[in-house]
UniProtKB/TrEMBL annotation:
Residues 26-74, 75-129 form the HTH myb-type domain. One of its GO terms (molecular function) is catalytic activity. It comes from the Eukaryota. This is MYB transcription factor. Residues 1-20 are annotated as: Disordered.
Length: 350
DNA sequence: AACTGGGTCAACCGCCCATAC
DNA sequence: TGTATGGGCGGTTGACCCAGT
């Protein structure tokens, strides 16, 4: 049932309450009349100064309530309906970067509100974690997302693209996350964009090679973080010509099978030395380290993105493919990967 | 038909920060 | 510098829906 219908159901109830407390601020569900007042007032005078706006508009609401109603429900560009796989994928990606920074995440999902994303995370993602009896934010949870849910969503996106594109073509335009301008604003002043999320062409065969088969995932993975292999190209750099397919090709050629190591801090959180020792050295770029669900951001020395939006996004996304590539599940999480494979792979999108 | 338990999501709460004075 | 106010944010609540019994 839509919120409007729900609101209508409450209308009589609220009206009665309003009569009782006519001099007090109203609370609870908004009526159509209130919505209309707010919409028309903002259309004439614009947003902001919410307390004053509430009074001027003749609403018996406090400013915060008006602001919330407008931003989460009435604003014209609010997108309705279920989150698409692309959007779900985006949320997983961005949450891995920023944690529960819902408003920040919402900025990169046009038409979606922080409240909606927060609800999605709590009702879908955390629910799945509970059902699997794993703590959301735990390492097992991270592995589950990386090894199963994300590839599953990527596959869904891929299937959608196949439907859109000619079935005869062998190369798919992986533009899922920019197709509806999700990231256009992110890299607005630069031609560079997220390796994982950018509009990038890649070969279907390579896609299949990096989407782990859940049933073989745990057995084929090294039990810890991996150093970049010795033959990893030292001149590899993220720049405008960077293509996701490059990494996919590398993944099949130089997937490290030894020199595994990991570090663990006092809190049992894993730090990723790759960022400090290798990626920084190789690519001379800013480490964003944390990136992983539930990690202590102080311990991980998470730096808030700098100055411009473009810079911020480049800095934060650049590491992503390496995270997915090198940050292999640990031995302790192998149980999860093995035991959860069937459950997760058969699971509908979050 | 009535009840129940779980899921969803709009709305609220409380805290924090920035700004004005 | 201290205080008041506005606004933003993440966490939580509770009304409602719906499927199962």
């Amino acid at each position: 049932m839509s919120a409007i219908t729900k609101r209508d159901n409450n209308k009589n109830k609220m009206c009665c309450k309003e009569e009782e407390n006519s001099t007090e601020m109203r609370r609870g569900p908004w009526t159509l009349e209130e919505d209309s007042l707010l919409i028309h007032y903002i259309a004439r005078h614009g947003e902001g100064r919410w307390n004053m706006l509430a009074k001027s508009a003749g609403l018996k609401r406090n400013g915060k309530s008006c602001r919330l109603r407008w931003l989460n429900y009435l604003k014209p560009d609010i997108k309705r309906g279920n989150l698409t796989p692309q959007e779900q994928l985006m949320i997983l990606e961005l949450h891995s970067r920023w944690g529960n920074r819902w408003s920040k995440i919402a900025q990169h999902l046009p038409g979606r509100t922080d409240n909606e994303i927060k609800n999605y995370w709590r009702t879908r993602v955390q629910k799945q974690a509970r059902q699997l009896n794993i703590e959301s934010g735990s390492k097992k949870f991270i592995d589950a997302i990386r090894c199963f849910w994300t590839p599953r969503l990527v596959q869904k996106v891929e299937q959608q693209q196949k439907l859109i594109n000619s079935p005869s073509t062998t190369t798919t335009s992986y533009s899922c996350l920019t197709s509806d301008t999700n990231l256009n604003h992110v890299s607005s002043s630069s031609s560079s964009s997220s390796p994982m999320l950018s509009s990038t062409n890649y070969n279907n065969n390579n896609i299949n090679s990096v989407i782990p088969n859940p049933l073989s995932c745990s057995s084929s993975l090294s039990p810890s973080f991996q150093r970049p292999p010795a033959n990893f190209p030292s001149n590899f750099a993220f720049d405008d010509s960077w293509k996701f397919s490059q990494l996919l090709e590398l993944s099949s050629e130089v997937l490290p099978e030894n020199a595994a190591y990991m570090s663990e801090n006092n809190n049992g959180c894993y730090s990723n030395p790759i960022h400090q020792e290798n990626l920084l050295a190789m690519n001379n770029m800013t480490s964003t380290a944390s990136g992983y669900y539930g990690m202590d951001q102080n311990l991980m020395n998470l730096q808030e993105p700098a100055a411009t939006t473009t810079t911020m996004m480049m800095e934060t996304y650049d590491v992503l493919p390496f995270d997915y590539y090198f940050h292999q599940p640990t031995a302790e999480s192998d149980w999860a990967l093995g035991n959860m494979a069937d459950t997760l792979w058969n699971m509908e999108a979050l």
